[in-house]
Design a protein that fits this description.
2 strands, Serine Threonine Protein Phosphatase 5, Tetratricopeptide repeat, 14 helices, two-stranded antiparallel sheet, elongated, mainly alpha
């Protein structure tokens, strides 16, 4: 009898374990399904709806709004969205809340709430109208005047995160290309050339047939040039800038901006060939003062490779003829070595 009791106990324990874990999974699934489509609010923003249904709550919101009670109407909107996030009235209340925030002079908060509307209720609001409202807020932030000790200035870089959100909301939206170009221009004007290069490149890649594609590509080349000048030791940046500028001339050889690109490219090439020739001369000089035969030969070979690159990559430069002379000297010197 005892073995059967033991088996029965084990079986009951197993069933209880399955029931508990299954119930836990079910509860977890239920929590996922009923999760409110609402970001976390601060402790002072937890409002309870006045009415018993979302329909009557929305009617109450409209009544408050028409009476000019914008703050009370805003609280009622938050209460509806938090109490009935899956109801058809929720996106309507969220849109109303965004408009009320604009009326109350809170554009930054309104943009944040518009963004939540786009992310949480896609397809349940007037898309173009909302995007235009968000654009107006972002544009106002980028062009508004600031003052410090009676000195007026602007901070357009503050609008870049807003512009980026608008582009993510719709890469083919009617103003997306304009915003991408404005981001690049802001980076360029604030001398953040590395970010400007990336932004201009993104514009040309996404919108190659747009009217500003040519200007974007040449601006990218100009920013590459300026960035390489800020980092004169970085040879890779100089080579990359030369490649981008050459690409600009290949794409648009008859552009009005081609002359500036050629000037920048010539300056880069002069610096590149000078650096390459100097590197070759250093290898040759090191070989002259090296007593170890193997190291001596290795430095001569390295010098010759650099001189040959000068001739191959910059055949019309002033250094090419001197590189030929140096190669002849190296060949003669290597021939004398045992």
């Amino acid at each position: 009898m005892q073995p059967w009791n033991h088996i029965l106990r084990v079986g009951l324990a197993g069933l209880l374990l399955v029931a508990l874990t299954g119930g836990g999974w079910a509860a977890e699934d239920t929590r996922e399904e009923t999760k409110q489509a609402r970001h976390d609010l601060s402790w002072w923003e937890h409002y309870r709806p006045v009415e018993a249904t979302p329909e009557t709550q929305l009617a109450w919101i409209n009544k408050l709004k028409d009476a000019g009670h914008t703050i009370r109407a805003s609280k009622a909107c938050l209460a509806l969205v938090n109490a009935w996030p899956e109801s058809p009235q929720a996106p309507v209340a969220q849109l109303t809340y965004c408009r009320l925030l604009e009326q109350r002079g809170k554009p930054a908060k309104a943009f944040e709430e518009y963004q939540f509307l786009v992310e949480a209720y896609a397809g349940f609001f007037p898309y173009d109208e909302v995007m235009d409202s968000m654009y107006a807020i972002a544009d106002g932030i980028s062009t508004r005047d600031r003052y410090f000790l009676f000195i007026k200035f602007k901070t357009p870089e503050e609008a870049i995160p807003l512009f980026e959100k608008l582009i993510r909301n719709g890469t083919q939206w009617k103003r997306a290309a304009e915003l991408q170009f404005r981001i690049a221009r802001i980076y360029e004007k604030t001398q953040q050339y590395d970010l400007a290069v990336e932004a201009y490149g993104t514009y040309h890649q996404r919108y190659p047939m747009s009217p500003l594609a040519e200007q974007a590509l040449f601006s990218q080349g100009r920013c590459c040039y300026e960035y390489s000048r800020e980092n004169p030791v970085a040879l890779d940046l100089r080579e990359n800038a030369a490649a981008v500028l050459q690409g600009c001339l290949d794409w648009y050889p008859y552009s009005d901006m081609a002359a500036e690109a050629r000037t920048c490219l010539a300056d880069l090439q002069h610096a590149l060939v000078g650096g390459l020739y100097g590197q070759a001369a250093l290898y040759q000089k090191t070989a002259r003062f090296t007593s170890d035969k193997r190291a001596h030969q290795a430095n001569l070979v390295a010098a010759r490779v650099c001189y040959e690159r000068v001739i191959d990559e910059f055949p019309h430069s002033e250094w090419a003829e001197q590189a030929h002379v140096r190669i002849a000297e190296i060949n003669q010197q290597r021939g004398k070595d045992p």
